[in-house]
Design brief:
Layout (H helix, E strand, L loop, with lengths): L1 H25 L6 H14 L3 H32 L15 H29 L1
């Protein structure tokens, strides 16, 4: 009886572990912003044909969308911190409000550059 319970628990643990591995592999389509930037740079270095430039333009549009999402996320965090006096004090301002505003501006500027690059590569593709 003990071996039956142990082997049943062992099989259940294996099934749960395998399910977790399958779920982790299925979620790999969500690429981080840093990885997306690296992939785009690699594509840019090798783009020569019109189809490669179209693909690169699509990647730049995708990158710009992700950068705008990051920008709005940081802008929302800055808006959340703003009404609280403790976060705008000199002790915490640099790590809260200034940090969020800096990255909101940075990602917005990066998104504008990415859109310009997308337009550039679309013109090269045609």
């Amino acid at each position: 009886m003990k071996t039956f319970v142990r082997s049943t628990l062992f099989i259940a643990a294996l099934a749960v572990g395998a399910n977790g591995l399958m779920a982790a592999q299925a979620g790999t389509s969500n690429v981080s912003l840093k990885q997306l930037v690296k992939q785009t740079k690699v594509l840019e270095a090798t783009a020569e044909t019109p189809t490669q430039h179209k693909t690169l333009a699509a990647e730049y549009h995708r990158l710009a969308q992700r950068q705008l999402a990051e920008s709005s996320k940081h802008a929302e965090m800055a808006a959340w911190y703003a009404p609280f006096p403790i976060y705008s004090s000199t002790k915490f301002r640099a790590s809260t409000l200034d940090h969020c505003r800096y990255f909101a501006d940075k990602y917005r500027d990066d998104a504008q550059r990415s859109e310009k690059m997308a337009v550039h590569h679309e013109s090269l593709a045609s």
